[in-house]
Design a protein that fits this description.
Layout (H helix, E strand, L loop, with lengths): L14 E4 H9 L1 H10 L10 H20 L4 H5 L4 E3 L5 H5 L5 E5 L4 E5 L3 E5 L4 E9 L13 H16 L7 E9 L12 E9 L5 H13 L11 H18 L1
Parallel strand pairs: 1-4, 6-7
Antiparallel strand pairs: 2-5, 3-4, 5-6, 7-8
Helix pairs in contact: 1-2
């Protein structure tokens, strides 16, 4: 079921759109259309193995406390009255290329996203948790331009879980693991400082974007190049050089 990776106009089958593809659409509808309608994706980036390792270890650490029904020291340090959430589908919701899935009947799109963790507060509301790895001597914050995507990511997850019928808090948290560089020598290990950054999300924008994605997918023409897209800019310049060479 839902084996097709490319969108087919007028198909009755639901079509999956991942959280990362929503980001792609918001960055450049043309690149999104080429990817989902025509199978022409951007060049792939290498995987961040170190980040994945940190994510895996944090999940194991919180899972140990999840089994015991205990709060993490970080929760106590930052005065977050919550516990790691227990649910039979947690591992599925964390799994890449599967994740949590909400079928939006109006557009017939299935919006998916693989979360890092869920906590639950005293009001029985779910808290969306996202792990991030970095190495900086600056104060950890969410104000950098590229981190605005982090906020959208969390809000999409909030929207998905609300669509699935869960009571979700507007408040979510980013757990940053910051690798220090101030040691005298490496000794084959990195030392991380953990910081929790709260973020009050607002997912009101998500539904309108999902509708725009559906409208984009249903078009029979490729959207125009985005002047702010570095990929579109690169291809336009390369195509101009190619045409000039052919003319010569």
């Amino acid at each position: 079921m839902w084996k097709k990776s490319l969108y087919t106009k007028n198909s009755s089958e639901p079509f999956k759109i991942s959280r990362s593809k929503i980001d792609l659409f918001m960055e450049c509808p043309r690149c999104f259309y080429l990817d989902r309608r025509m199978g022409i994706c951007r060049p792939l980036m290498p995987g961040f193995s170190l980040n994945s390792a940190v994510d895996a270890l944090l999940k194991k650490e919180f899972d140990l406390l999840r089994k015991k029904g205990e709060a993490h020291e970080l929760m106590k340090k930052y005065h977050i009255e919550a516990l790691p959430y227990v649910h039979e589908n947690l591992d599925l919701w964390r799994e890449n290329f599967k994740g949590a899935q909400y079928h939006d009947l109006e557009t017939n799109l299935i919006i998916t996203g693989a979360i890092d963790d869920l906590w639950i507060n005293k009001e029985k509301e779910l808290l969306i948790i996202d792990y991030k790895s970095t190495s900086t001597e600056k104060e950890i914050s969410l104000e950098d331009q590229y981190k605005q995507g982090y906020k959208r990511q969390l809000e999409i997850y909030q929207w998905i879980f609300r669509g699935l019928g869960f009571k979700v808090s507007d408040m979510g948290y980013f757990v940053f693991a910051n690798a220090g560089k101030n040691r005298d020598k490496f000794d084959g290990k990195l030392e991380f400082e953990l910081t929790v950054i709260p973020y009050k999300g607002n997912d009101n924008w998500v539904r309108s974007i999902v509708k725009k994605i559906k409208e984009c997918l249903d078009k029979d023409q490729v959207p125009p190049p985005n002047n702010n897209c570095e990929y579109c800019g690169y291809l336009q310049k390369r195509w101009k050089i190619y045409k000039d060479d052919v003319a010569k």
